[in-house]
Amino acid sequence: MNPPVHPLKDPRLKPPGAPRERLAPWLKKRLPPQDQVREVRALVEGLDLHTVCQSARCPNLNECWSRKAATFMILGDVCTRTCRFCTVPKGRPLAPDPAEPGRVAEAAARLGLAHVVVTSVDRDDLPDQGAGHFARTIEALRARLPAAVIEVLTPDFRGVPEPIDRVADAGPDIFNHNLETVPRLYARVRPGAGYARSLALLARVRERRPEQFTKSGLMLGLGEEEAELDAVLRDLRAHGVDILTLGQYLRPTLAQLPVERYVPPEEFRRWEARALELGFRAAAAGPFVRSSYNADSVYRALGARSGAGGR
Questions:
Q1: According to the model, what pLDDT value does residue 157 have?
Q2: Which of 46, 78, 136, 216 is the most exposed place for a label (fewest CB within 10 A)?
Q3: pLDDT in tens, 79-97
Q4: Regarding the domain delimited by 30-306, which CATH topology (the fold level of the hierarchy) does it fall under?
Q5: What are residue 175's DSSP bridge partners?
């Protein structure tokens, strides 16, 4: 039986030289069998694709890949933003690859995904900020996997209406955009982003495409206060957001922000109950919860609460 390990100390996930910080005792997982992990890695590399699992050094990589679940990251692996919690490389990206949407659809089909999650780096350098590429990826997935649930996790598109509408009009089932943290911490955590801008994006999708589910998530442990977090949850509900995720921020390397606090599992359970009390149609909260972690299960829970999955 595989022994429990701290996910951020797993040598199969972290490169040599990554920091070894003392983590809370509940931040342990057992390493799953690696055969399917290697299979997914070979598929991603063979199709020349990127995943946020790798680029963001997600602690759930081994678990998800062992179930043949991966979150595709389109538009390259270089981001034009400098968020201080994220390990995705920063700099000047290459031009979008027009064949990438088809390869994402091919990978999803080979993995047998019934729920496909697609995210991207920020592409402030592009006239449409990558919205057209998102739309083409959704269209390729629809053509290859017509029964699949398609979930997108998008940048804020600088609040420009046309790119937001372009992605929403392509018809994803779930439109996700993360707030990440409370407004007081934006300048330190998300420079270049705006709390009001992100809320407005979610509200615009809700108004334009009411049949789509909207989703957002935050990281805890960055220094937020309880009252601030509760206010954010109420803001999200006021803007019509259906699905909430809350997870523990884990410092990937010494170049990112330090963890201010490890939130215990029972506190996450309390926040999940609070979210449902506020009217979110589905919520997932826990130390290892991430936007796309068990996204299919969260979607099914939403359907169970809604009655046959309808709005």
A1: 97
A2: 46
A3: 999 888 888 888 889 999 9
A4: TIM Barrel (3.20.20)
A5: 152, 214
Contact 173, 213 (CB under 8 A): yes
Count CA atoms within 13 Å of residue 161 on its CB side. Answer: 4
Distance CA 301, CA 107 (A): 26
Euclidean distance between CA atoms 42 and 20, whole angstroms? 28
The vertex-224 CA angle with 118 and 15, nearest 5°, equals 50
State residue 10's pLDDT score: 44
Instruction: Give pLDDT tens digits for 234-250.
Output: 999 999 999 999 999 99
**Cα→Cα distances 297→67, 69, 83, 179, 302, Å:** 13, 12, 29, 21, 9
Q: In 3-state terms, what secondary structure has residue 40? A: helix
Collect the ranges in the chain with pLDDT lower than 50. Answer: 1, 3-16, 18-19, 307-310
Can you give the pTM of this predicted structure? 0.90
What's the CA gap between 202 and 125, in Å, rounded?
Answer: 22
Report which of 46, 42, 50, 57 is spatially closest to residue 12, judged by C-alpha positions. 57
**Cα 248 to chain centroid, rounded:** 13
Contact (CB, 8 A) for 219 and 181 = yes
The whole-angstrom separation of Cα 85 and Cα 9 is 18
Q: By the 8 A CB rule, do 137 and 98 touch?
A: no
Q: What SS3 string covers 98-154?
A: CCHHHHHHHHHHHHCCCEEEEEECCCCCCCCCCHHHHHHHHHHHHHHCCCCEEEEEC
- In angstroms, the CA 197 to CA 179 distance is 10
